[in-house]
Specification:
The protein is α/β, with parallel strands linked by helices. The chain is built from four helices and six strands. It has one domain: 2-Layer Sandwich (Transcription Regulator spoIIAA).
C-alpha cells in the first residue's frame, strides 16, 4: 500500500487500506476489484458507511468489474441519502476513469484526480 506520510494505516487487507486523515476516512484500493475480492471490498466500504466524510482512492486500481461498480453506486447513494460527503479519486486516463465514464458514473459521483484534490473537494462541499 502506498500512503502519503500524512496518512496512518488503521487496517490493511490485500489491495485495501483504511486510514483517517484530519477526520476524513480514506479508503485506498489497488489491484483488481473483482468477484474474488468482493467480501473484503464490501467489508471496507461498509466501514465507511457512517463516516461524515470519506475519500475512496482508486488511483492504483488496475481493473474493476460490475460488482465493484454496484458497490460504489450503493455507497455513493448512502452518503447522498444522509447528506454526507464522499469523493472518489479516479485519475484521468486511468482504467477506473474509463470505466466510470463508460458507465456515466462521472456524472453522479464527485471525482478528483488525486488525493490533495479530493481533500480540497471535500472542504468545498
Amino acid at each position: 500500500m502506498r500512503f502519503q506520510t500524512s496518512l496512518q494505516a488503521e487496517a490493511c487487507y490485500a489491495g485495501l487500506a483504511v486510514a483517517t486523515h484530519e477526520g476524513v476516512r480514506v479508503l485506498v484500493l489497488d489491484g483488481e476489484l473483482d468477484l474474488l475480492h468482493e467480501a473484503a471490498l464490501r467489508k471496507n466500504l461498509a466501514g465507511l458507511a457512517q463516516a461524515p466524510a470519506a475519500i475512496v482512492d482508486l488511483s492504483a486500481v488496475a481493473y474493476l468489474d460490475s460488482m465493484a461498480l454496484a458497490a460504489f453506486v450503493k455507497l455513493n447513494k448512502e452518503f447522498a441519502g444522509r447528506g454526507a460527503r464522499i469523493v472518489w479519486v479516479v485519475p484521468p486516463g486511468s482504467n477506473a476513469r474509463r470505466i466510470f465514464e463508460l458507465a456515466s458514473l462521472d456524472r453522479y459521483f464527485t471525482l478528483a484526480p488525486d488525493l490533495p484534490a479530493a481533500r480540497q473537494a471535500l472542504s468545498a462541499v
